[in-house]
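Backbone-to-sequence.
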């Protein structure tokens, strides 16, 4: 399907969250795009939920695939949307060439649901003993990180700092701010993902 897809407001929020997280667009011609969603098989309940939410856009039901990396076999669970020009706007906002970036207008689009999707993809607790939360944002550059920090503060009054890692930077949410994070996204986080909130 290369025609127009009707994307609901809720689906748009989920797509924004996925693009901040592990979702990515694929294109063959720069005009039509599809969203690829892939997680480990352990997160199949999350993938099944995403599929139900995006079912009207999806090309087929989730499938299992085996992937071997450095001699270790991994079990993945994935699905794609249809290719459509309806995704072009989002692709143009979130990509510079093949590099994923954060749009300048992210604060307009970062809703509690979008934040919950992003957190379910890339969030974690620092440790079982700590209340601090982490968003793994290693792939984003300094400009994108600043835009994300500003949006979290502006939209939800969640103040953050950056934590340097070998691969890049994480967004670090201190314990006091983590309470506000839970209040903001708790009702959207699936039972199978509640462990990420501690």
């Amino acid at each position: 399907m290369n025609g127009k897809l009707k994307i609901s407001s809720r689906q748009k929020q989920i797509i924004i969250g996925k693009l901040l997280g592990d979702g990515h667009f694929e294109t063959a011609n720069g005009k039509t795009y599809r969203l690829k969603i892939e997680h480990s098989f352990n997160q199949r309940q999350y993938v099944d939920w995403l599929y139900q939410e995006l079912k009207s856009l999806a090309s087929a039901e989730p499938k299992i695939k085996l992937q071997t990396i450095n001699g270790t076999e991994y079990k993945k669970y994935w699905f794609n949307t249809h290719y459509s020009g309806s995704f072009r706007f989002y692709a143009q906002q979130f990509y510079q060439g093949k590099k994923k970036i954060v749009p300048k207008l992210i604060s307009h689009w970062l809703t509690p649901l979008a934040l919950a999707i992003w957190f379910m993809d890339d969030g974690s607790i620092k440790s079982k003993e700590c209340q601090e939360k982490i968003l793994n944002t290693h792939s984003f550059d300094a400009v994108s990180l600043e835009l994300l920090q500003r949006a979290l503060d502006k939209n939800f009054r969640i103040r953050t700092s950056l934590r340097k890692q070998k691969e890049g930077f994480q967004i670090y949410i201190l314990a006091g701010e983590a309470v506000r994070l839970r209040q903001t996204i708790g009702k959207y986080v699936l039972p199978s993902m509640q462990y990420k909130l501690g």
